[in-house]
Amino acid sequence: MLQQPLVERPPVDAAEYDEAYFLCASEGYREFAASRGRRLSARLRKVLDLADVRPGQQVLDVGCGRGELVIQCALRGAQAFGIDYAEAAVRIATEAIAHYPAAVRDRCQVLAMDACRLRFEDASFDTAVMSDVVEHLTPSQLDAALAEVRRVLRPGGRLVIHTYPNRELLDVTYPAYVRRVHQVMAAACRLLRYRDSIIRPDVPTGPIFPRSEHERRFHVNEQSGASLRLALHRRGFEAVRMRFWQPAAYAVGWPLRLWALDLVRYLRPFSFFPPLNRYFCGHIWAVARRP
């Protein structure tokens, strides 16, 4: 029997990514509002650390958003290019860069461009980053974008990817384990007539991982570690290193019962480390090399 082809969700129109998205919803917006790119969220700092940007390098940020990674690469002495297909992103990034000294501005360039059709020469860059981009591209778009990134990277060039959420957490860990913990907790709360801001009976217990409106609207191609590795190998990348790392979720002084709850439902801190992190950490990081 012939297998039916998978049906992709429609691509997200660039106009959907407006100023409100980048300034009020996209990862790191609080740090950007306070510093115009001088301070980064923990997630974006991790991307920058993995990129290991050096002075004199040519760096490409695919889906640069507000431009803070472009700015940070320029501050480290690299020639940094950011591309985004959303007009709001290009405008916000250009305005942010304008507040920096001329020496930094001269090393930054932000362009309106489709990741599937990069207008750069072959072997132009030492490093490329794709932070919170993969899940926003359909499978065919992702395949085309990875092909283009490989083309513009120099031999030995590095590609750093961050994507969220991890499908293993959504499809395996949550339905098989986390929601069961929630079911027990909800039943105990009803039996004991107990409820506070953390331990309460209305935690999610359905079989489907609860999604934010943002994720339902913009995420068209969420990944597992295995699927992302396969996508990279398919486009000729090698030496692919996958990491599963969860930025700190709690502020200092949060209640002990919150830590106790997450010890039970997410096995933290043990699930920060292999092999549990592959199934309990929501964030996937990949570092790959063009041969």
Could you give a quick summary of the protein structure above?
The chain is of the alpha/beta class and 291 residues long. The protein has helices at 19-24, 29-35, 42-51, 68-75, 87-97, 102-105, 139-152, 167-192, 213-218, 225-234, 256-265, 277-280, and strands at residues 58-62, 79-84, 108-112, 125-131, 153-163, 238-244, 284-289. It has a domain at 14-166 and 212-251 and 280-289: Rossmann fold (3-Layer(aba) Sandwich), CATH 3.40.50.
Beta-strand level of the residues, as a percent range? Answer: 15-25%
Can you give the mean pLDDT? 93
The helical percent reads 25-40%
CATH topology grouping of the domain at 14-166 and 212-251 and 280-289: Rossmann fold
Going by CATH, the architecture of the domain at 14-166 and 212-251 and 280-289 would be 3-Layer(aba) Sandwich
Question: Class of the domain at 14-166 and 212-251 and 280-289 in CATH?
Answer: Alpha Beta
Let me know the number of strands: 7
